[in-house]
Amino acid sequence: MHEAGATGVADFHQNGNITTLHNLRTRSVEELTQELKAYSVSRKISLILPSLYSELEGPALPRILDELSEVPYLHRIIIGLDRADEAQYRHARDFFGRLPQDHIVIWNDSPRMTGLGRRLETMGLAPQEAGKGKNVWSCLGYLMACQDSAVMAIHDCDILTYDRDMLARLVYPVVNPNFPYQVAKGYYPRIGENRINGRVTRLLVSPLLIALKRVIGDRDYIDYLRSFRYPLSGEFAMRTGILPDLRIPSDWGLEIGVLSEAWRNLAPKAVCQVEISDAYDHKHQDLSEDDASAGLSRMSTDICKSIFRKLAMDGTVFTTHVFRTLKATYYRSALDLLEAYYSDAMMNGLAIDRHREEQSIELFAENIMRAGQIFLDNPSETPFIPTWNRVHAADPDFLSDFRRAAAEDVAEYGAG
Fold it and tell me: Superkingdom of the source (predicted)?
């Protein structure tokens, strides 16, 4: 199940803000699976997979399906398919057809789904842009329309190191009725090809939160975000009762946005993070120094905006001077952390390119200012997709029509 000594035995440190559930290597995936199977009889578990069509042609997804095929406790798998034409949708139906669980591929670009999008537009409730946020939001809508799941899990479709142990550990905290958790967030070391990865978390989010604390002072929200070992991980599990009021960001701020929603709607004792893997690797985004609308450059700007917006909602006053000070403080904090990452990498025999890491820090420092300026220019910008509760209030038939449209797409276009 685990490579012996892959990362040694985990620590058991608790940060005092949210609960951390470690992998102490003392329980087999088979034992966890049997317990989840028993719980899932009365607490049905659904898995959401937001997927680009291109991921069907990548190396990760076939392995993910091999592992998922062995999972006995899943009630349903909902695949949200983006950027696919009709032939590609047919192929996707075929591709996912080997899953033994009840599953559906939602063709987000189908004529029916496009028509439903126009219906939302007439009410002023349509997502502002396509992307992972909109895909996840649509899948959540389908899940709510089914009205039969107690727990929802989500993970990406580009995980190269996937095994079913990850899913079992991710859902266990919210499935177990004896636990108080409404939200579980996965964490892991980002290691691949003999190097430390996870640049945006390591070189942007961690030093930015340190800098914010120094510049604007103590904030419970900053301490909360700093409590997460991997705030940008794409792996969540939630109890479905909180989904109708969940505001999903439509930009790259999805992961931070969901943590912010958990902070807004729940007590800290209802949120936990859980160690789901010894070594995790997935598709890497380009830094995109020359294109602010793509790759890690776009992602870093959106993440900064997401954090600034949340702090402003809680009463923080931002000015151009604050953002200038923040940029300088961030830069110093990031270089200090780079020293720590370098030592950690060297001691563990991993590669780290200091020049490339410093280039990333310089880009992120610029993007802190860019995000700050966008925030100051558009203080009322709210790139959130309306909650499903709001959509339901405006159009009580929408969710059932959405579910019917997905079923009609399946019936009309069939398998490949």
Answer: Bacteria
